User: What shape does this take?
Amino acid sequence: MSATAHADTGGLTANAIQSAVASTVGGFDLASTSDEVTTTSDTDSAVISTINGTTVDVPKSAGAGITVQANGQTIGIDMPNTSGTQAGTVTAPGIVSYPTTSGDTANAVQADESGATRFLTVIKDADAPEEFQYSLDLPQGSTITKEDDGSLTVHTPASDYTVAAPWAHDANGAHVWTQWFTDGESTIDLVVNHHGEDVTYPITADPWISWGWTGYIVHLNRAETLRVAQGGVAFLAYKIGGGGAAFAAGAGAQWLSDYASRHGFCLSIFKSYYGTYARPSISWC
Assistant: This one.
């Protein structure tokens, strides 16, 4: 289906957000990456989780912003386009969705099993913007740099943090081009190029932030990416260490490898230092 706007003017319900998220990850079971996360809540917070020394506090009000405590410091993250959002709803373990009564974008936040935070933006139709700004409340002296693979590194006095290269999919699972921009100080902009493109809505964009030294990234070259695309799960286990991690990355890695091989990109895998958690992404070769 070509990129056409929906006829209705309604917003996005919690169920609609969750359905969009579930249908756009190319076989990668996103919800499973937080189904064992233990969370609490309070008057202001929909989800609070502490994993591997990182505490993520996801508020009930989207406008309040997320706070992350790690390495003895607190970092704040404001989500984009929060006007008109309703109170956050826990739609799956570790996942909070923010329904909208009107408008064409909505947010969801996931605290996953590695201690990282995933920010999901659901784009309803062609009337939605292409730029989504995240404002970061960082310690004094912090900077942000963009890396060659499309990721960002947030440098703070305590340590460096990774903002993985973003990826986005339409309702049919087709990749939608997306990238980061930053002012180098406190703002990062997610750009999702969907205007005038042959896409099927809704689109789900998947920025993912690892706050702390919770793991490492393995970059595959083009030949290795093709090998995974052709079903090389055993090879993936060899590259990232352990069949459990390869299984955790499996379906999403193979799907992304296939896309990357056909479009001149390469596969990268984030591997947690803890347990078997692994996450695939696309990067520049």
Observations:
- The radius of gyration is 18 Å.
- The CA atoms of residues 107 and 121 lie 5 Å apart.
- The chain has a mean pLDDT of 83.
